[in-house]
């Protein structure tokens, strides 16, 4: 059972989320609040929850502003009518980003992404709980918000203040840093930093030769000298 709170200034949206929580057996609603100030007060009074469903556009204190002032926020699922805050939200390491209106199936998918992180530590001799191996998020490409499934990503390349996210069919130039994206993908063990300029999805490696990873579709990624030991150890865990 995971505890949760809702912070949204729209009453209809709050009622919808409350209904979705009621339909979810492993969720228990602790608080349903109408604005960011009430949310800040809730957490500063020492209240804790496992999951926070958080709107962004609210008077006095936005959802993103609230996240920035919380010292130890819970897992956060953004619920908003706006797509253009996605990059900023994921920089704050939210678990998922739901664009209104969303249905119960999409709500359930977001909740399932929280569960691996909330799982209790395994008892001695039990297998470790693995992080989920698939995820997607919105990234801002020029003036568009594009959903990228990170299972499909071959590698990410740093380009100064941008990154180049490469899939078998597309390349996306995104205004963010490689470090920020590495932090966002830290829960997925298949993504490994292999070079100061490259983050590699080891699921797509076809072969390795001369410290170069050869990927599907003729792509290749260099493995930097200072990263080689950690990289080859990561392959042994797969």
Order of helices and strands: EHEHEHEHEHEEEEEHEEEEEH
> For this structure, what is the CATH class of the largest domain?
Alpha Beta
The CATH topology of the largest domain comes to: Rossmann fold
Mean pLDDT: 83
The percent range for strand residues is 25-35%
- CATH architecture level-2 label of the largest domain: 3-Layer(aba) Sandwich
Helix content: 25-40%
CA-based shape:
elongated
Query: How many domains comprise the coordinates?
Result: 2
Output the radius of gyration: 19 Å
Helix segment count? 7
Describe the structure concisely:
It holds the Pfam family Response_reg. The chain is of the alpha/beta class and 238 residues long.
Walkthrough of the structure:
The protein has 238 residues and is an alpha/beta fold. It folds into two domains: 2-118, Response regulator (Rossmann fold); 147-236, OB fold (Dihydrolipoamide Acetyltransferase, E2P) (Beta Barrel), CATH 2.40.50. The protein is built from seven helices and 15 strands. A five-stranded parallel β-sheet has the order 2-1-3-4-5. It has a five-stranded antiparallel β-sheet with strand order 10-9-8-12-11. β6 and β7 form a beta hairpin. α2 packs parallel to α3 (63-69). The longest helix has 15 residues, at 104-118. It is elongated. InterPro entries: CheY-like_superfamily, LytR-like, LytTR_DNA-bd_dom, Sig_transdc_resp-reg_receiver.
Any descriptors?
238 residues; alpha/beta; Rossmann fold; OB fold (Dihydrolipoamide Acetyltransferase, E2P); 2 domains; 5-stranded parallel beta sheet; 5-stranded antiparallel beta sheet; 15 strands; 28% helix; elongated; Response regulator transcription factor
